[in-house]
Amino acid sequence: MNLDAMIREATGDESTLKEIVKLHGDASYRTYLRAVMDDGRTFILMQMPAGKASASEEITNLSGTHEELPFINVARFLDGRGIRVPKIYKYFDAEHVMVLEDMGDNLMAKNVEGASDDIRRNWYRRAIDLLVLLQARTEGRERSECVALNRSFDPTLLNWEFDHFLEYGVGERLGKKMTPADHEIFTRETRNISSKIGKLPYGFTHRDFQSRNIIIMNNDLCIIDFQDALLGPQVYDLVALLRDSYVASSQPLLCVTIAAEGIATMKL
Fold first, then answer.
1. Residue ranges of the alpha helices (H) in 148-179?
2. pTM summary value
């Protein structure tokens, strides 16, 4: 089935596909396309690679059997809790293509990069409010309701994250190779950190709650890229938000202030 036919079947839109625009998908095996119809409507097409998952997803612990795609499962769960996520029109299993609502390109990242302290503080406070809402509305839910509640940041995954950083963040990006002695220290200290993290209070964790995964639409904050959600330390998403991989913070004191406010709010 071609894309034109898939969009018509999924959405009921009778217009003709006019243009396909490839979107930047960051570090993902998935490919994102914007379908522009001749009546002006737009949809997002997410191409899922057949039988290929991220390395971290492959080693993530999972209780029970879950045949449904995590993206679909988590999206339905969050939507049911009143968290704004893209509408899924249909997933075409044979073609590995999902037709999604187009929420636009107004990423939070675009609104905070290079912005004044007041503007940045406003958006980060709103993002923290959304995170508090997300945690409150997912707390105490039955595990059967969502795949994210059946997998967690266990020591295997936490240590994989550290080793991934060593391999790509230090090895490939910086071109540095650790001596055996330094590697021994790295392993000992990171395993100690993983052990301490595992003792923190856990809850629903987006896992990539950052400014490029929050879209501002009609002044509402909407979440995308949530398919890897799992149970993790309750502070994980807050740290991910304020130590953003994509927005360079030139105001450390501002971030510390917002973080303190966020932690206080999350404890209420």
1. 155-164
2. 0.86
